[in-house]
């Protein structure tokens, strides 16, 4: 039983035979993808205050230093991104910061907001206004929270990381796999194009890896909303002295992801954390968001490769490198499980607008 699944009423029927079959997959069972994609983004770390203390994470603040970007700072970073030709504002958060920190709550109140999600609405408006499409990853979200901001996002996401109970999530406040799955399900119910993924090397077993990928597949089969699954190796840093997974491990997890998921779902490997050249033949077809402007605020020790480097990777693999938007093309038309178009009228209007940003979005699409 997945920890927290009952509490969040997540009822998945993962067939043990499917798990066994997936565990038998090797890189020889898959091949290289016909093209590689990436998105140009800016990181907007809206707040680094977090109610959790994942032991591998350097993103979260210790109490007393909880930080919140001001609307002016959000606008400034978005404008720099837009000027540099980006299409995506990636909003990252600590989970439920206003719930845990009164200082965050008070600062938000000063700016006229009741909650971090209300502030996220304003931040998304700023991004759209500056010519970027929002992709928000606020961690776990309730249905009310997600519904509050869905119409201003091109897509959203949360890493499942793992379905297992691992030490790395331990301590007095721990992430609940059931709650992450419930967040992914909520996105499906609301018809939000969604990014999720597994974090490899945080103490999970091979069985847990297979189960995590099958859990994602099952939710995707219900709602058709998962656009990509990130296979992310845990990166060593000053809080995580443990190991990062080796190439053979990554190759096998990527191959398992490729086999577990339907073709329409991309398999993403971040080029600043993983030796992508050595996993490309296992079915990777996306390199995620890469920023010409900002650091990877989650893993600041790991610099983005320059676009030239991505081009060289693709060239050596003899596949084309194509820029994409933060929402994958198949969501531009058609509807989600709730019969509503995947894209809100608001986001659709930005794509069709006779503005410089609209032209930039359409140029990426026609590439
Ligand atoms: O550069 C990163 N991008 C991360 N992204 C962003 C991703 O690279 C792009 O924003 C998406 O591919 C959309 O274009 C995430 C997005 C999510 O929804 C959930 C988790 C992540 C995690 C990371 C990450 O650790 N580093
Ligand atoms: C945005 C995502 O970044 C991931 N994340 C947090 N810390 C690390 C790390 N040291 N290495 C790799 N990924 C990490 C988490 O899985 C989170 O969901
Ligand atoms: S990974 Fe996310 S949830 Fe965990 S401590 Fe870092 S910011 Fe918080």
Automatic annotation (TrEMBL):
Its cofactor is [4Fe-4S] cluster. It catalyses: 5-amino-5-(4-hydroxybenzyl)-6-(D-ribitylimino)-5,6-dihydrouracil + S-adenosyl-L-methionine = 7,8-didemethyl-8-hydroxy-5-deazariboflavin + 5'-deoxyadenosine + L-methionine + NH4(+) + H(+). Its EC number is 4.3.1.32. [4Fe-4S] cluster binds at residues 50, 54, 57. Binds 1 [4Fe-4S] cluster. The cluster is coordinated with 3 cysteines and an exchangeable S-adenosyl-L-methionine. Keywords: 4Fe-4S, Iron, Iron-sulfur, Lyase, Metal-binding, S-adenosyl-L-methionine. GO terms for molecular function: 4 iron, 4 sulfur cluster binding; 7,8-didemethyl-8-hydroxy-5-deazariboflavin synthase activity; iron ion binding. PROSITE patterns: RADICAL_SAM. Residues 36-272 form the Radical SAM core domain. CDD domains: Radical_SAM (cd01335). Gene3D superfamilies: Aldolase class I. Pathway: Cofactor biosynthesis; coenzyme F0 biosynthesis. It comes from the Archaea. Pfam families: Radical_SAM. Catalyzes the radical-mediated synthesis of 7,8-didemethyl-8-hydroxy-5-deazariboflavin (FO) from 5-amino-5-(4-hydroxybenzyl)-6-(D-ribitylimino)-5,6-dihydrouracil. Belongs to the radical SAM superfamily. CofG family. HAMAP family: FO_synth_sub1. The FO synthase complex consists of two subunits, CofG and CofH. This is 7,8-didemethyl-8-hydroxy-5-deazariboflavin synthase. It comes from Halomarina rubra. The lineage of its organism: Archaea, Methanobacteriati, Methanobacteriota, Stenosarchaea group, Halobacteria. The gene is cofG.
